[in-house]
Write a structure and sequence with these properties.
The protein is of the alpha+beta class and 151 residues long. The protein has seven helices and five strands. It has a five-stranded mixed beta sheet with strand order 1-3-2-4-5, with helices on both faces. A hairpin with a 4-residue loop joins strand 4 and strand 5. Helix 4 runs antiparallel to helix 5. The two termini are 19 Å apart. The relative contact order is 0.23.
Protein backbone atom coordinates (compact mmCIF):
# COMPACT_ATOMS: atom_id res chain seq x y z
CA UNK A 1 0.00 0.00 0.00
CA UNK A 2 2.92 2.37 0.69
CA UNK A 3 4.14 1.81 -2.88
CA UNK A 4 0.64 2.57 -4.22
CA UNK A 5 0.51 5.70 -2.06
CA UNK A 6 3.75 7.03 -3.55
CA UNK A 7 2.51 6.20 -7.07
CA UNK A 8 -0.77 8.05 -6.41
CA UNK A 9 1.11 10.96 -4.85
CA UNK A 10 3.29 11.22 -7.96
CA UNK A 11 0.30 11.00 -10.32
CA UNK A 12 -1.64 13.67 -8.41
CA UNK A 13 1.32 16.06 -8.46
CA UNK A 14 1.18 15.95 -12.27
CA UNK A 15 -2.42 17.26 -12.45
CA UNK A 16 -2.36 20.98 -13.19
CA UNK A 17 -4.39 23.28 -10.95
CA UNK A 18 -6.13 24.69 -14.04
CA UNK A 19 -7.53 21.22 -14.74
CA UNK A 20 -9.25 20.92 -11.35
CA UNK A 21 -12.12 22.82 -9.77
CA UNK A 22 -10.60 24.08 -6.54
CA UNK A 23 -12.31 25.38 -3.42
CA UNK A 24 -9.64 27.17 -1.37
CA UNK A 25 -9.73 28.36 2.23
CA UNK A 26 -9.87 32.10 2.82
CA UNK A 27 -6.89 32.01 5.15
CA UNK A 28 -3.74 29.91 5.11
CA UNK A 29 -3.96 26.55 3.33
CA UNK A 30 -2.83 23.84 5.76
CA UNK A 31 -3.56 20.82 3.56
CA UNK A 32 -5.47 19.57 0.55
CA UNK A 33 -7.63 16.69 -0.61
CA UNK A 34 -8.12 15.54 -4.17
CA UNK A 35 -11.68 14.34 -4.72
CA UNK A 36 -12.72 12.26 -7.71
CA UNK A 37 -16.35 13.30 -7.98
CA UNK A 38 -19.55 12.79 -9.93
CA UNK A 39 -22.10 15.62 -9.80
CA UNK A 40 -25.02 13.15 -9.73
CA UNK A 41 -23.61 11.09 -6.83
CA UNK A 42 -25.58 11.58 -3.60
CA UNK A 43 -22.59 11.07 -1.33
CA UNK A 44 -20.53 13.48 -3.48
CA UNK A 45 -23.27 16.06 -3.00
CA UNK A 46 -23.24 15.42 0.75
CA UNK A 47 -19.47 15.86 0.88
CA UNK A 48 -19.76 19.08 -1.13
CA UNK A 49 -22.07 20.51 1.55
CA UNK A 50 -19.15 20.09 3.96
CA UNK A 51 -16.58 21.92 1.81
CA UNK A 52 -17.07 25.12 3.88
CA UNK A 53 -16.10 23.15 7.03
CA UNK A 54 -13.02 21.77 5.30
CA UNK A 55 -12.08 25.24 4.04
CA UNK A 56 -12.58 26.71 7.53
CA UNK A 57 -10.05 24.14 8.81
CA UNK A 58 -7.56 25.31 6.16
CA UNK A 59 -8.13 22.40 3.77
CA UNK A 60 -8.27 23.01 0.04
CA UNK A 61 -10.69 20.76 -1.89
CA UNK A 62 -9.47 19.91 -5.38
CA UNK A 63 -12.11 18.27 -7.58
CA UNK A 64 -11.31 15.90 -10.40
CA UNK A 65 -14.01 14.51 -12.67
CA UNK A 66 -15.08 10.88 -12.43
CA UNK A 67 -18.47 10.44 -14.12
CA UNK A 68 -19.38 6.98 -12.82
CA UNK A 69 -21.62 6.16 -15.80
CA UNK A 70 -18.70 6.84 -18.12
CA UNK A 71 -17.81 9.26 -20.87
CA UNK A 72 -20.44 10.44 -23.34
CA UNK A 73 -23.24 10.26 -20.75
CA UNK A 74 -25.62 12.96 -19.46
CA UNK A 75 -23.52 13.18 -16.28
CA UNK A 76 -20.40 13.69 -18.36
CA UNK A 77 -22.18 16.52 -20.22
CA UNK A 78 -23.12 18.21 -16.92
CA UNK A 79 -19.57 17.90 -15.67
CA UNK A 80 -18.18 19.27 -18.94
CA UNK A 81 -20.49 22.26 -18.53
CA UNK A 82 -19.01 22.87 -15.06
CA UNK A 83 -15.42 22.56 -16.30
CA UNK A 84 -16.22 24.89 -19.22
CA UNK A 85 -18.18 27.47 -17.19
CA UNK A 86 -16.93 31.01 -16.70
CA UNK A 87 -17.33 30.51 -12.92
CA UNK A 88 -16.47 26.85 -12.40
CA UNK A 89 -16.98 26.94 -8.63
CA UNK A 90 -20.48 28.41 -8.97
CA UNK A 91 -21.31 25.79 -11.62
CA UNK A 92 -20.09 23.02 -9.31
CA UNK A 93 -22.13 24.46 -6.43
CA UNK A 94 -25.24 24.51 -8.64
CA UNK A 95 -24.81 20.97 -9.94
CA UNK A 96 -24.01 19.56 -6.51
CA UNK A 97 -27.23 21.04 -5.15
CA UNK A 98 -29.33 19.54 -7.95
CA UNK A 99 -29.45 22.78 -9.90
CA UNK A 100 -28.95 23.58 -13.56
CA UNK A 101 -26.04 25.07 -15.42
CA UNK A 102 -26.04 26.27 -18.99
CA UNK A 103 -24.74 23.47 -21.20
CA UNK A 104 -21.29 24.29 -22.48
CA UNK A 105 -18.59 22.45 -24.37
CA UNK A 106 -14.86 23.08 -24.51
CA UNK A 107 -11.62 21.18 -24.41
CA UNK A 108 -11.64 19.71 -20.92
CA UNK A 109 -9.66 17.22 -18.82
CA UNK A 110 -12.59 14.97 -17.87
CA UNK A 111 -11.62 11.93 -19.98
CA UNK A 112 -8.02 12.11 -18.75
CA UNK A 113 -9.16 12.46 -15.13
CA UNK A 114 -11.57 9.54 -15.53
CA UNK A 115 -8.73 7.37 -16.86
CA UNK A 116 -6.40 8.60 -14.11
CA UNK A 117 -8.94 7.66 -11.46
CA UNK A 118 -9.40 4.19 -12.95
CA UNK A 119 -5.60 3.70 -13.08
CA UNK A 120 -5.37 4.70 -9.40
CA UNK A 121 -8.00 2.21 -8.31
CA UNK A 122 -11.02 4.49 -8.12
CA UNK A 123 -14.17 2.39 -8.49
CA UNK A 124 -16.78 4.78 -7.09
CA UNK A 125 -17.30 8.30 -5.89
CA UNK A 126 -16.39 10.21 -3.92
CA UNK A 127 -12.85 8.87 -3.90
CA UNK A 128 -10.55 11.04 -1.82
CA UNK A 129 -6.80 11.11 -2.26
CA UNK A 130 -4.75 12.68 0.51
CA UNK A 131 -1.53 14.55 -0.19
CA UNK A 132 0.47 11.51 0.95
CA UNK A 133 -1.26 9.43 -1.75
CA UNK A 134 -3.61 7.52 0.56
CA UNK A 135 -6.88 6.63 -1.15
CA UNK A 136 -10.03 6.91 0.93
CA UNK A 137 -12.93 5.32 -0.95
CA UNK A 138 -16.39 6.67 -0.26
CA UNK A 139 -17.88 9.45 1.77
CA UNK A 140 -16.25 10.53 5.02
CA UNK A 141 -17.68 13.45 6.99
CA UNK A 142 -15.56 16.57 7.36
CA UNK A 143 -15.08 15.86 11.07
CA UNK A 144 -13.33 12.59 10.15
CA UNK A 145 -11.41 13.99 7.17
CA UNK A 146 -9.93 17.01 8.93
CA UNK A 147 -7.67 15.03 11.32
CA UNK A 148 -6.59 12.72 8.45
CA UNK A 149 -5.48 15.70 6.38
CA UNK A 150 -3.89 17.77 9.14
CA UNK A 151 -1.73 15.02 10.70
Amino acid sequence: ENRRNSERQSLMSQVADKDMIIFSPEGKTKGAVYVFTDVDCGFCQKLHQEVPQLNAAGIEVRYLAYPRAGLGTPTYDKMASAWCADDRNAAMDALKSGGFVTPKKCDNPIAAQYQLGAAMGVTGTPAIVLENGSLIPGYNPAAQLIPMVLR
